[in-house]
Design a protein that fits this description.
The complex is a heterodimer of chains A (230) and B (79).
Chain A: H1 3-31, H2 45-72, H3 75-106, H4 115-136, H5 140-155, H6 157-167, H7 187-229
Helix pairs in contact in A: 1-7, 2-3, 2-5, 2-7, 3-4, 3-7, 4-5, 4-6
Chain B: H1 3-29, H2 45-78
The chains are: A mainly alpha (230), B mainly alpha (79).
């Protein structure tokens, strides 16, 4: 796929994602029914849960690209990994800021050091470390290799985040969609949540492709400047 | 007195007895302390609006950031 095609596909997907997200906002405020016990505060779920899912997808992709990069040493894989990791940080930040707002109403506190929250914050810091490691070495190749290892280690945290609410005593609610006996949400709430998951995923894929195009152009610029200096 | 008349008398008597109690209960429910018993749907509106604003704000920030970096690189490559 050529750079122009990637740029165009990214732009189209991002536009679709943004329009789709607008529709999700409308559904969340005017269409979906209000939950009985938590009232309107429960609607935070329609941004919090999809942001969590998208960040896990992004960090998972970053780890996958990093693992294959360590094996094949193809620069394109490193560029894809850093693009996915940046997206992961963006959506993880949304998850970590909307969650406490919901927690304040549901639990009476913005933050508590319970397993899922602590492991999620740890994931955010590991990927912050990913960017620091990349830029901290004088040899860029070495930085990329070390960062790839950090991304793989970080992604190992994701299954623990998902299972922590089942394994440990936790304030955080257990999964309501991905569970053995199927989703337990009422129909309209499940529809809104799945619509939001779709919007966040498409938006991420679009912006990931745009970010990847940016890395390709940077690489092209680097190559040109190296040739010019020779 | 037939059965219907007895029944009507009983219902009227009970209504007169319960009426004042129900009215006083309505007055009590309008006191500030009784608000705890009402469903608090309006309570956390601002939390929801802030959460939705943060979500769209961060996404918008990332879109603008990518756009700016792309245009800068394209300018450099163009030169």
């Amino acid at each position: 796929m050529s750079s122009k095609k990637i740029l165009l596909t990214g732009t189209v997907l991002a536009m679709i994602g943004l329009i789709w997200l607008g529709a999700v906002y409308w559904m969340s405020f005017f269409w979906v029914s209000t939950e009985v016990t938590q009232g309107i505060a429960q609607r935070i779920m329609y941004v919090h849960v999809p942001a969590a899912w998208t960040s896990f997808l992004a960090f998972g992709l970053a780890a996958l690209f990093s693992a294959v990069y360590l094996w094949l040493r193809d620069e394109r894989l490193d560029r894809a990994a850093v693009s996915a990791a940046e997206g992961g940080m963006v959506f993880a930040t949304i998850m970590l800021t909307t969650g406490p707002l919901w927690g304040k109403i549901a639990w009476g506190t913005y933050w508590t050091w319970e397993p899922r929250l602590t492991l999620t914050l740890l994931l955010w810091f590991i990927f912050l470390g990913y960017f620091l490691v990349r830029s901290s070495t004088e040899n860029p190749e070495k930085g990329k290799r070390h960062a790839a290892v950090v991304a793989i280690v970080g992604a190992l945290d994701i299954p623990f985040i998902h299972l922590s609410v089942i394994w440990f005593r936790s304030l955080h609610p257990e999964p309501v969609v991905i569970k053995a006996e199927g989703p337990t949400l009422p129909g309209d709430m499940l529809t809104t949540l799945l619509m939001s998951l779709g919007a966040f995923t498409v938006l991420f894929l679009g912006l990931f492709l745009l970010r990847y195009s940016l890395e390709n152009l940077r690489s092209e610029l680097d190559t040109r400047s190296r040739h010019a200096s020779v | 007195m037939n059965r219907n008349q007895i029944l009507c008398s009983l219902v009227t008597g009970i209504s007169f007895l319960i009426g004042p109690i129900m009215l006083s209960a309505q007055e009590i429910s309008e006191l500030p302390g009784a608000q705890l018993a009402t469903q608090g749907l309006g309570r956390p509106y601002w939390h929801v609006f802030i959460a939705y604003a943060i979500a769209i704000g961060i996404v918008f920030f990332w879109v603008v950031s990518i756009g700016r970096r792309l245009s800068q690189i394209e300018k450099k490559i163009g030169n």
